[in-house]
Fold each of these.
Amino acid sequence: MACIEARGVRKSFGATVALDGIDLRVEEGRIVGLIGPNGAGKTTALNAILGLTAYQGELRVLGRNPWTDRDELMRDVCFIADVAVLPRWLRVSQALEYLEGVHPRFDRSKAEGFLSKTTIKRESKVRELSKGMVTQLHLALVMAIDARLLVLDEPTLGLDILYRKQFYDSLPNDYFDRSRTIVVTTHQVEEVQNVLTDLMFITRGKIVLNCSMQELETRYSEVMVLPEKVAEARALRPIHERQVFGRSILLFDGVDRQRLATLGEVRTPGIADLFVAVMGNGDAAQGVAR
Amino acid sequence: MSTQSNAVPNTPLESQAAAPTLLKATQPFYWSVRRELWENRAIYIAPLAVAALFVLGFLLNLAKTMHRMAASLQQSELQQHQLIEQPYHFSETLIMGATFLVAIFYCLDALYGERRDRSILFWKSLPVSDLTTVLSKASIPLVLIPLLTFAITVATQTIVLALSTMGLAMSGLGASPMLNHLSLFHMWVGLLYHLVAIHGLWFAPFWGWFLLVSAWAKRSPFLWAFLVPFAIGLLEKITFNTSHFANLLLHHFMDAPGSSMSAPGSMSMGTLAPSTLGQFLASPGLWVGLGITAAFLAAAVRLRRYRDPI
């Protein structure tokens, strides 16, 4: 069964079209990165998947309609929204108690384990924690839920680089097994590159790229072209070209690697470079931070 | 990578064995109500503070009260009776007033505050339905605050009784004349009726309306909650030169069966006749009101689903 299946999902706010007919299928056991510039519809797409917003079109998450069956769906799904949403009056101990009381798949000892690696005190209120600590707390709560689908919308926003690294390193090891699915949006694309199994680019409410990381490696190649071969390389119709230290770096879609190897040094492009190539510079500039 | 490939053969077996036992029983409603009390501590702190102030004031005035009691022995039975009952009536009016205000502010913030601070996104990430959430919030003014008010009032009055018994004993008057005049048990039955039946059930449409406004308003729910009925009343006055709507609201608020708010001091007092209860349950105002409350709450559930964080 597909974890998420969407056909022609549309959503508009007044005259603004946030989702312009999204079609996608995410199989179980994938880690999908949803990458797009600000205002591309990432959060709206996630909100539709989570049953937080009404939409037109057909959408099934774990076989359920998220809009009508949100509370049942939430037994199997957990998510972190893109802004700090833990209520400020909540105590850490109360959060643990409450989740234990309402969530059938919440493992309190696991959450306590995550928290013991941080400096967060049980009796603290959320308002007394720093921004990074609130995110750590929220992650600890969510990661202790044995969910089938985990949705993370900018999960590491406001965290320092050490904790971010630690988080993305632990995601595949501590949390992921083959029955679980993770959907993550982020601007920190380089950090998730090694974690993802699938990549989706979204812009102006449309999915413009949807491929697995394996596919990405076979399909896209980046060549640092030897100066004398530039004209020859351009004839192969690269989708993007940029200059680094006076050398031309050309990005190709679906061109044979052995053929490209004669032009210069070939490697798999980074997500950020691919993003720039696929989106065009205007959209991409604000979408990716390195 | 090596650890992962080692772990893979075990995973399906483990998850199959663990899956049925992992699903623990949950009590979303119970925990949602507790959550409300965590967030809104004023629900019990406000009446406790009022009760504590009252007891303190009573203690400071104890000597004066004893003098007046001694003097009242020469007066008529009725005056004695009134003097003795006075602190009990006063304490329950104060505590009731405090919790009534708390209930209004609670309702107006209940479904508005979570949207304003965006914490609704956290609550909605948990397997608790909008219906459970709204019902747990509605149960606070409908059931919990009346019962809590009753418990705090009874405790306060017991302390007042103990203090005045001690005072009378020390001043050599003896407590028996006071105890003859006081029928606390009857007062408490009357109080419980007043709180549960009137404040909880009879006023239910008001609580439902406040919750609905708090689920709907994008800003200042307090203003909307009072402005809308006022505007309807005004419109009716201008168009038809009648005031049925305003009268209806006032009538429902003031003249609940078995209690008349328009005659202060008489509310909830004295004995509760079984006929009062019958009269209450047979009153169409109660049932129509509860029907309207259900409609308001259903609308609030729907709004909670549709409304985005502010």
Amino acid sequence: MFAFQFSSLSEFLQMGGVYTFHIWAVYLLFAVFIGYNLLQPKMVRRHFLREQKRRAARDEELASKTNTQK
Amino acid sequence: MWLWFAKLGSPRWFYELSDKWLPWLYLSMLIMMSIGLFWALLIVPEDYQQGQTIRIMYIHVPVASISLACFPLMAVAGTITLVWKMKLADMVAQSVAPIGAWFTGLALATGAIWGDQIWGTWWAWDARLTSLLIQFFLFIGVIALRSAIDSTDAAAKACAVLAIVGAINVPIIKYSVDWWNTLHQPASNFSMDPVSPNPPEVWVPLLVMICAVYIFFAIALILRTRNEILQRERRSQWVIDLVAREKNV
């Protein structure tokens, strides 16, 4: 039951030869799908944190300016 | 019980709890996915009819079956939003829509690639394929509807209603292969018998992949929901403190 189906790396990459493209295209799409859905939220989060930090810094600057004017 | 329910509705509580869950979810996804992919690509024997293309099943079936779980989840979250006005439920409903669209799109794409090999055609207006395509458009519709309405509360209600009504499509997709004579095959039964057409050596790795993809779905949903929590609660003190604590962004 637990036997390797391929005897070499090139045989594995060929996947029987006839439908090599079909099989690897499915696995490639799956990799893109996993990668995008894990990285996209991380990018959004980073963008949000940067934006909020920028805002906080600007608000602080404004507050200190109004204080010195008084 | 009610205290737990009320707490779960608190976005901050969910955010802090998910901080603790995420590392474990990542770890279990990594383990399950490695075992599943290794098994599916290297160990599963060739199918007597399909040869090596049987390996497409280990991606297509988990993705397609979980794509069917997204819409009911969105409908349940929508119901909670309408009945109890729970903020977190709407954030989950909003986060699950793009993930559901991705899952459905990938199920259609991998199905087309498989279909080209096994049926000799990329697409057929078969009941299963068509109803899944409708689900894809429904997800796009929910996303578009939300972005078209400016008020968060009004968008939440409209999307909740569309999610509940659209969920009628899910049993149609599920049972289309039994109700109509489709090109798509009906679900296969798992069998413990090693000489049956669907022995354990074929379905056990499939089960591992289904678990792995489910964990991935949970992670993707949690990540998006956390972003939505931060965005909507950005004026509350705990998010301001959290932003201040974050270094190197």
Amino acid sequence: MIVYADLGCPHCASAWVEISRREATIVFRHFPVASKHPRSPALHAAAEAAGAQAHFFEMVDSLYADRGHVDDPHLWKRVEELGLDLDRFEADRRSDSVAARLRRDFVSGIRAGVTGTPAIFG
Amino acid sequence: MIGAGEPAPEFTLRDQDGKKVSLSDLRGKRVLLVFYPLDFSPVCSDQLSIYQEVKPEIEAKGVQMVGISVDSGFAHKAFQEKLGIDTPLLADFEPKGEVARAYGAYIEQVGHANRSLVLVDPKGTVEWVHESPTPLEIPGANLIFDALNAVA
């Protein structure tokens, strides 16, 4: 199951509760719509950076579970709770490769005709 | 709805800042006219937000994208600010829907345009059109890129 989702999107957050319970293998594709949710690109970059330390879905779950706490200090707190290396996280989330990954996913969503999130291809 | 190969009807409308914009001012580059129903409606908000995200790629192909609805320039300005977008929005306000009518995109029964895309070539001829089956359906931005790849 391929899911195009926006980490700043409230509809995605409620859908995620259901999606993450599924037995299916979930392919998460980044689809941050910055004009709607200005904080989204930073949250997607944070999820990728956590993913570089093998905690991608833990970060996604946490971001969706507490949408009121998504500023940088809240991200650092999550990093600490997940036992990740903060310096590496900070470097990774601002890296060109993470930015390129987010853009690649977004463009693939556009190519697939995604016009809103969450968009699910089963 | 107007068809490919027909001359694009000329128009002069005011944008969100009250500035007059004519189609002929944009001659020399491709223009994508995005007719949409109404500012602040949920579906239009999603459509323009998504298009904003790919605006750099659209512009990189030498295309100027403008939105057109029957709302006033003041409403357009507020809508732009709400969405955080900088796509120019033109007010087809008085006579109401005149430009949408000229392109065959107006729905008389509801008093606003259907969700329609019109690509105008640099010489002012319609190259491609897409009309949504209903105003509730957003044309994916993939359609725009497919069209641009086909005409380029």
